[in-house]
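Hi X.,

You mentioned you wanted examples for the new student's onboarding notes, showing what a folding record looks like when two proteins sit in one file. Here is a clean example. The first protein comes first, with its sequence line followed by its structure tokens.
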Amino acid sequence: MTSCYHPEDICARSDFCVSEGRFSPFVPLIQGFEFRGMNKTSTKSAFRAISTMTRAGLVEQQLRNYILNNSLEPGHKLPSESELAGRLGVSRTAIREGFKSLEAVGVIETHHGKGRFVGKFDSSAIADNLAVSLIIDRASLTEILEIRKALETGFLAQAAALLGPEDFQELDRLVLRMGLKMKAPSTFLQEDMEFHRILFSKLNNRVLINILEIFWKLFGQIEEGTEHSAKQLTEAVNQHKVIVAALRKGQVLRAKDLLEAHFQDAERRIAASAD
């Protein structure tokens, strides 16, 4: 981990600033606005925006800006609570709450005894938050599935050209494990996520994989605990099996059609669960 930062440069190089011992955000809050046609000198008609952001929220905003404006990378150590509290003119409690908010979404990581550091991208935090909302809003879940389908089918041809013998062996192994779990009976969420991950891993497109990781984990959480019939599980295993067979033969268009059918089955399950 990189642990070099220069406290004396915080005010000069970032959005942390202290004015007369009080916390002053780098980007000033909107003090007011006027409708078009209003006289700027009129005090009776002017409206003022009411700021509802807490001090902890302002600290969180400043920390985000500090990380972005200084192009900090994962592993870079952040200033301590006491350092920030002194320079921002707020309590350590506000600093701590700001840190907690960023840690909840994976922006920063806490290593006890060492400090806080810029975190690596973690799709789990985003998936966790989305899962709670989408369990309630099934309509949005269907729309997200459409996005996932467009991404996976759109990149399948490019990904298929990069698959090697070892990849097909791993895909076969996962399909076999799916079949064994089905006899338990139980679902095979982990195997399903790993199956799709292997399909696209050779693209070396980190952004794509991160987005797909969010979708895979999200749907894994949604599907977990959902009842599936033996017929549905058998169909799912067979769908994965024929997709592998088509890709191994170089039949990319057929594999794409099979993948779309696989998603259509997921759409039906989502629709049924919403009834």
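Then the second protein repeats the pattern, sequence line and then tokens:
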Amino acid sequence: MAAEPEKKDKRRAALMAIVEERGYITLSEVAAALGVSAQTIRRDMTELEKLGRVKRTHGGITFTGALDQRAWHQRQRSQTVEKKVIAEQIADLVTDGATVFLDIGTTCEEVAVALLARRNLKIVTYSIRSAAIFDNREDFTVAIPGGIVRHIDGAILGAGGDDFISQFRFDYAILAVSGIDMHGTLRDDDEFEVLRVRTAMAHARQILLALTTDKIGTGGLVKLCDLGEIDVVVTNDQLPSPILSIAMENNVEVIPVSPLDPMGGSAHK
């Protein structure tokens, strides 16, 4: 009998690994993948939902536990002034009437506020928080995918999010990342988010990266892209020489903007 709890734990760990990778999976898909009955998966889903790690939906299961709450709240408090001036510079690059993809996160929420200075925008985002910022703008059109809201950061999770995004063509894709290393690799912490952002990048005319300096030299679980795939980087200080060299080699425009100089510094290209 002692082996039964161990078997159950291994099955639930395997289930979580699948859901973390996919973001969303149907009941029948996960039952087939693990070689167990749908009834067994329902019991596992119920227990995992009680732990706050997943959310049951009609016919499936959505991952809700990718983010560490302490880390997220630390992000909210980190470099708030710098995020604001970066956001304002990003908004200055966006033209009235443009179609925009807006990533998720505290930096992009500041970008959403700054974009209120524009007119007649069409915005696609999977952040319920950013979408709410545009609520009173009748000249804006805002599109969000269906799904379950992850309460810690307002991300909308569910099947087909990348398919939803692929319907659009963007003038600008505005991104933020968990970190960038000295080799110019941009990373994030959530495979589900990376898939959506990669889809938006593939359908964007210009890709803008909002980068606070606290993200430089830090990592993330999943590679998003290389720096050379970005068109413009807006940051709150000069980039370290190795990263700046990579940007220049790949014709990436770098715009440093200081909280003390909100009009921006000298651009490198």
